[in-house]
Amino acid sequence: MSHHLPDTRIPAPCIVNTGIIVNKLDMRRLLADLGRVHYIYTQKGQLLSEGDGDVMEVFANPQRSTLVANQALYLNLYSFDYLELKQSPEQQTYFDLMQEDVCLRLIPLSTPLQERKERNLNVSAIEAMMEQVLSARWDAEIDDDCSDSF
Q1: Measured distance CA(49)–CA(42) in Å, rounded
Q2: CA separation for the pair 82, 28 (Å, rounded)
Q3: pLDDT value at position 67?
Q4: Which residues pair with 41 in a beta bridge?
Q5: Helical H runs in the chain?
Q6: Parallel, antiparallel, or unpaired: how do β-strands 82-87 and 19-21 relate?
Q7: CA 64, CA 59: separation in Å to the nearest integer?
Q8: How many alpha carbons lie under 13 Å from residue 126 in its C-beta half-sphere?
Q9: Which end of the chain, N or C, is surrounded by fewer C-beta atoms within 10 Å?
Q10: Shortest CA distance to 60 belongs to which of 35, 88, 83, 41?
Protein backbone atom coordinates (compact mmCIF):
# COMPACT_ATOMS: atom_id res chain seq x y z
CA MET A 1 0.00 0.00 0.00
CA SER A 2 1.55 3.31 -1.01
CA HIS A 3 0.62 6.74 0.15
CA HIS A 4 1.13 9.74 -2.06
CA LEU A 5 1.62 13.16 -0.71
CA PRO A 6 -0.02 15.94 -2.68
CA ASP A 7 2.28 17.62 -5.17
CA THR A 8 2.97 20.86 -3.36
CA ARG A 9 5.17 23.59 -4.69
CA ILE A 10 6.84 26.08 -2.45
CA PRO A 11 7.07 29.45 -4.17
CA ALA A 12 10.47 31.01 -4.68
CA PRO A 13 11.30 33.71 -2.15
CA CYS A 14 10.43 37.30 -2.93
CA ILE A 15 12.96 39.62 -1.31
CA VAL A 16 12.31 43.36 -1.51
CA ASN A 17 15.06 45.67 -0.16
CA THR A 18 15.82 43.54 2.93
CA GLY A 19 16.51 39.87 3.49
CA ILE A 20 19.09 37.10 3.44
CA ILE A 21 20.23 35.54 0.18
CA VAL A 22 22.11 32.23 0.22
CA ASN A 23 21.77 31.20 -3.42
CA LYS A 24 25.00 32.07 -5.24
CA LEU A 25 23.20 32.87 -8.51
CA ASP A 26 20.88 35.31 -6.76
CA MET A 27 23.86 36.87 -4.99
CA ARG A 28 25.67 37.26 -8.30
CA ARG A 29 22.64 38.86 -9.96
CA LEU A 30 22.42 41.45 -7.18
CA LEU A 31 26.12 42.27 -7.14
CA ALA A 32 26.82 42.18 -10.89
CA ASP A 33 25.12 45.55 -11.43
CA LEU A 34 27.24 47.31 -8.83
CA GLY A 35 29.71 49.85 -10.10
CA ARG A 36 31.34 52.24 -7.67
CA VAL A 37 30.92 51.32 -4.00
CA HIS A 38 32.06 52.32 -0.55
CA TYR A 39 33.29 49.18 1.23
CA ILE A 40 33.71 48.52 4.95
CA TYR A 41 35.54 45.37 6.02
CA THR A 42 35.01 44.32 9.65
CA GLN A 43 35.75 41.33 11.85
CA LYS A 44 33.81 40.88 15.08
CA GLY A 45 32.62 44.46 14.67
CA GLN A 46 36.18 45.84 14.47
CA LEU A 47 37.02 47.94 11.43
CA LEU A 48 39.83 46.36 9.39
CA SER A 49 39.61 48.38 6.18
CA GLU A 50 37.44 50.96 4.46
CA GLY A 51 37.46 52.79 1.15
CA ASP A 52 35.86 53.38 -2.24
CA GLY A 53 36.33 51.21 -5.29
CA ASP A 54 34.81 49.74 -8.43
CA VAL A 55 33.34 46.24 -8.56
CA MET A 56 35.32 44.79 -11.45
CA GLU A 57 34.15 41.17 -11.33
CA VAL A 58 31.66 38.99 -9.45
CA PHE A 59 32.27 35.24 -9.75
CA ALA A 60 31.84 31.92 -7.93
CA ASN A 61 34.96 29.76 -7.86
CA PRO A 62 36.11 27.75 -4.82
CA GLN A 63 39.72 27.96 -6.03
CA ARG A 64 39.99 31.77 -6.16
CA SER A 65 40.02 34.60 -3.63
CA THR A 66 38.03 37.75 -3.13
CA LEU A 67 40.44 40.63 -3.75
CA VAL A 68 40.13 44.27 -2.76
CA ALA A 69 43.10 46.42 -3.77
CA ASN A 70 43.96 49.51 -5.77
CA GLN A 71 40.32 50.72 -5.68
CA ALA A 72 39.14 47.53 -7.42
CA LEU A 73 36.96 44.74 -5.99
CA TYR A 74 36.96 41.19 -7.36
CA LEU A 75 34.21 39.40 -5.44
CA ASN A 76 34.23 35.61 -5.15
CA LEU A 77 30.87 34.45 -3.81
CA TYR A 78 32.54 31.35 -2.35
CA SER A 79 34.32 33.67 0.09
CA PHE A 80 30.97 34.29 1.81
CA ASP A 81 28.24 32.20 3.44
CA TYR A 82 25.41 34.57 2.55
CA LEU A 83 24.48 38.09 1.52
CA GLU A 84 22.29 40.21 3.74
CA LEU A 85 20.36 42.91 1.95
CA LYS A 86 19.67 45.90 4.21
CA GLN A 87 18.43 49.47 4.08
CA SER A 88 19.83 52.53 5.81
CA PRO A 89 17.54 54.96 7.67
CA GLU A 90 17.66 57.07 4.46
CA GLN A 91 16.21 54.07 2.53
CA GLN A 92 19.50 53.38 0.72
CA THR A 93 20.09 49.69 0.02
CA TYR A 94 23.43 48.14 0.94
CA PHE A 95 24.88 44.65 0.92
CA ASP A 96 26.58 42.75 3.76
CA LEU A 97 28.62 39.80 2.52
CA MET A 98 28.97 37.56 5.58
CA GLN A 99 31.37 34.77 6.45
CA GLU A 100 31.33 33.73 10.11
CA ASP A 101 32.36 36.86 12.06
CA VAL A 102 33.66 38.74 9.01
CA CYS A 103 31.57 41.24 7.04
CA LEU A 104 32.34 43.01 3.77
CA ARG A 105 29.74 45.78 3.50
CA LEU A 106 29.16 47.28 0.05
CA ILE A 107 27.37 50.62 -0.12
CA PRO A 108 26.54 51.54 -3.72
CA LEU A 109 27.64 55.00 -4.82
CA SER A 110 25.60 54.76 -8.03
CA THR A 111 22.50 52.94 -9.25
CA PRO A 112 22.45 50.21 -11.92
CA LEU A 113 20.67 52.64 -14.26
CA GLN A 114 23.45 55.24 -13.80
CA GLU A 115 26.05 52.53 -14.44
CA ARG A 116 24.34 51.41 -17.66
CA LYS A 117 24.13 55.01 -18.92
CA GLU A 118 27.82 55.56 -18.16
CA ARG A 119 28.77 52.31 -19.94
CA ASN A 120 26.67 53.33 -22.96
CA LEU A 121 28.34 56.76 -23.00
CA ASN A 122 31.77 55.11 -22.88
CA VAL A 123 30.82 52.76 -25.73
CA SER A 124 29.48 55.70 -27.76
CA ALA A 125 32.68 57.68 -27.16
CA ILE A 126 34.83 54.72 -28.23
CA GLU A 127 32.72 54.21 -31.36
CA ALA A 128 33.07 57.91 -32.25
CA MET A 129 36.85 57.77 -31.78
CA MET A 130 37.09 54.62 -33.93
CA GLU A 131 35.04 56.32 -36.63
CA GLN A 132 37.43 59.31 -36.59
CA VAL A 133 40.50 57.03 -36.73
CA LEU A 134 39.10 55.04 -39.65
CA SER A 135 38.06 58.21 -41.45
CA ALA A 136 41.54 59.72 -41.00
CA ARG A 137 43.11 56.49 -42.25
CA TRP A 138 40.89 56.44 -45.34
CA ASP A 139 41.73 60.09 -46.02
CA ALA A 140 45.43 59.28 -45.75
CA GLU A 141 45.05 56.31 -48.11
CA ILE A 142 43.16 58.45 -50.62
CA ASP A 143 45.87 61.13 -50.38
CA ASP A 144 48.54 58.47 -50.98
CA ASP A 145 46.64 57.09 -53.99
CA CYS A 146 46.25 60.57 -55.46
CA SER A 147 49.93 61.47 -55.00
CA ASP A 148 51.04 58.17 -56.61
CA SER A 149 49.03 58.91 -59.76
CA PHE A 150 50.98 62.10 -60.55
Answers
A1: 7
A2: 11
A3: 94
A4: 49, 104
A5: 24-32, 112-148
A6: antiparallel
A7: 9
A8: 6
A9: N
A10: 83
| Band of residue 145 on the pLDDT scale cut at 50, 70, 90 | low
**Residues contacting residue 78 through CB under 8 Å, at least 6 positions apart:** 24, 60, 61, 62, 64
How far is residue 106 from each of residues 17, 26, 53, measured CA to CA in Å? 14, 16, 10
Residue-level length of the chain:
150
Q: What is the pLDDT of residue 150?
A: 54
Q: Which helix (H) or strand (E) holds 6?
A: none
Residues 6+ apart with CB under 8 A from 28: 58, 59, 60, 77
- Which residues are CB-neighbours of 130 under 8 A, at least 6 positions away? none
